[in-house]
Amino acid sequence: MNAYDELMEFARTTQALAQVAGRLGWDQETMMPRAAAPQRAEEMAAMEAVLHARRTDPQVGAWLEAAETTGPVQVANLRLIRRDFERARKVPARLAAEIARVTSMAQGVWARAREEDDFAAFAPTLKEVVALKREEGAALAEGADVYDAMLQDYEPGATAAGLEEMFARMRPRLVALREAVLDKPAPTALTGTFDEGAQMRLARQVAKTFGYDMARGRVDKAVHPFSSGSGLDVRITTRTNPVDPFNSLYSTIHEVGHGAYEQNIHADHLLTPVGQGVSMGVHESQSRIYENQLGRSEAFAVWLYGQMREAFGDLSVPDAQALYAAINRVGSGYIRTEADEVHYNLHILLRFDLERDLIARRLEVGDLEAAWNERFATDFGVAVDRASNGVLQDVHWSIGLFGYFPTYTLGNVYAGCLYEALRRDVPDLEGALSQGDLSPATDWLRDKVQTHGGLFQPRETIARACGEEPSEEPLLRYLEEKFGGLYGV
Amino acid sequence: MNAYDELMEFARTTQALAQVAGRLGWDQETMMPRAAAPQRAEEMAAMEAVLHARRTDPQVGAWLEAAETTGPVQVANLRLIRRDFERARKVPARLAAEIARVTSMAQGVWARAREEDDFAAFAPTLKEVVALKREEGAALAEGADVYDAMLQDYEPGATAAGLEEMFARMRPRLVALREAVLDKPAPTALTGTFDEGAQMRLARQVAKTFGYDMARGRVDKAVHPFSSGSGLDVRITTRTNPVDPFNSLYSTIHEVGHGAYEQNIHADHLLTPVGQGVSMGVHESQSRIYENQLGRSEAFAVWLYGQMREAFGDLSVPDAQALYAAINRVGSGYIRTEADEVHYNLHILLRFDLERDLIARRLEVGDLEAAWNERFATDFGVAVDRASNGVLQDVHWSIGLFGYFPTYTLGNVYAGCLYEALRRDVPDLEGALSQGDLSPATDWLRDKVQTHGGLFQPRETIARACGEEPSEEPLLRYLEEKFGGLYGV
Questions:
Q1: Which residues of B are catalytic?
Q2: Which CATH class is domain A111-489?
Q3: Interface pTM (ipTM) of the complex?
Q4: What CATH number was assigned to the domain covering residues B110-489?
Q5: How many distinct helices (H) and strands (E) make up chain B?
Q6: Which residues take part in binding Zn(2+) (chains A, B) (predicted)?
């Protein structure tokens, strides 16, 4: 065997082990007996130690030096292996271990602080996390921009400067749109109680409608919906709320977007570095276009109205048009994960600015809550009433995820671009959606984006699918048209 | 850290990884999407490679040489680690890999041959397996008895000669008992159909009644019932049959015996070598005493009758005494896993003699089917009608399990001894059982057997619990009394 083949065999085994570790995570949220947690922590730590040793194995460096490549797939695999290897090599083992220790403890501290609406109880721990992440970022950056280095973990190729410029163009238009919409009366909401068994049956049916392959996946309940795994075993979770069937429905469609992406990567790439979604932003573009541009569209509401009446009996809204309006009600809430499409990106822009300031030492943890509340009042026109509705609402910072938040908005931006290209390429998209036929849309996404996995860089993946460089314009146009139409602004 | 502590830290991580591999096995039989099998095979192979590398790591040998011990727990841990290390060292890597390859292929060949009742289609593959296992056995035996060496994988300390003598004493009494019982009319069977949801509810309730801790376990359905895992995460499976509620009930109780054993090992031993059931024979003693001596007892039938009426409505048998008789109906079937207590050990004795002859080259695979059928006719008084009811019924030999079968009867023998000691130590055992209070029995088993895990050798574990050396006498007395009483012989 030559160096490339040897390296790929090694990488394939590493990827198989990573899939096992991921499945442990799925099990923990769905099946694990409740008293098993302490043992599970040791099992996960053992898996992580095995994976870390493989990722930093000096033999990988030797193979990388010796490997010769003959085509784009090989080039991409080497690029991805090299990135992981160099990242692991740059962070001292002591620091990596300390980050693992502190963040695993910090998540518990955050959860208790959130429960008690007490940011001060979390601040000392967050301070430790921020200090460690600054140190790690500096090690990764090697003199260049620290936040940029952090971004590469989630969105290779993205830069803080590029995101900042784009977000600066988005913010005034989003603020203007929310103000215009909130001046108008809100459409009627869907009310009633909805059988949770029927919700799960509808969720599974809708998952299949969106192309999720049940032979290579399964749908279970979990407190926080997620998608897990790559290749032939990609599992998703959802949740039910007896008075809100949209929660289950759109959680499911969102996770199906993530799951279908992983399922639709070309079979040749199974268990190779290229055989996974290329970045968080591109992943989120799939979950968002499934959930929003397709799942919350006027055309899809036509089909959905019939399905919901079949599942739940008579609804409190009279027709598909009213269901479409109810699905897309805009309201200024505190919580990112419950935000409508108009507000969602404003939540992200706030977090992006604050976390960049934290990492750049322009902001310290002691001033974080005040900074959050001030910005929230400016952008949302409402004062934060308590910490759990403000700075304590998200788990991300407690577990050391800095540089992750912007990928949510990047995903929305990519979804906007893809949707415009999809409508251009697929003539009667609305006709198909209104009959519950998602295949023209999901086939297009599979062939243009998903099948490639990590073959191209993230931004290149989107640019190739759209035939042009991605920008925020299509998303903003889509939002202004959709909500302008719905609210008559 | 001293050598012992370093070795134990290493062993603990290995044990945690082994738990992960075991949980993958559970997932495969209960939750895995059906099309995920090829990926799962790679994941399992990756885990096995990691575990094999750790078990044969030369550092383990160095630690074993340097480690000093100060008490019985440390002595036992070193003994168990040394056994695994030396076993792994004795078998050449090439041979281990070849056995893994051939047996994984052979299982499929066996399954197809069984389906088509065609032993000749399986024979060439079984020949390969037997040849490889003979070679492995010779490597393990280093000049001593090959079958004895194989036994050590499942029942450390057992010898073929010892088992042969014991089985020779059992066989005539078992044959005589089955002949006497089959001369009498059989009691009325339980008939009807039994809601499978109600069967699962009853299974979970009975599992708890027998002391299975649901906070550290769970009960799911699987094609073949099994128990999986140690410590804080021990899962069992069962199955349901709409016309046979005993199938679900006694599969559950049997697996609860295995699962409770693992759950009840002292918490200090978590994820250490001592922290697992000590042998297959002792494991089976727990599953058998739960299932048979306790679960199929006259006293327990009193409580069970009420539970089953509550679960299923009116039964076809009029009272607890009739239920007890129905549970313990004796019939001469072909299949080991469906055998009653009188016939079960005759099935094992047959397999023990044949597999010993195979390994010792006194019998070749080409003559195996004829040898099986001849012996079956002698001991069971019935001619085997087809291979799937005879030599092809069990998976064991196809996957290379030689030396495993006798542990089933050894488990029954141990259960007989334990039951005699239990009745001596617990005055009103029957009174408690008739009220569905299993705790006097399960507490005794926990404190006398289960809590020790691998602290003592298997036979010593039983001897300490019983206060005397184990023998077949108590089991035979129990069977003769129970079935003599039931059938009036």
A1: 255
A2: mainly alpha
A3: 0.93
A4: 1.10.1370.30
A5: 20, 3
A6: 254, 258, 284
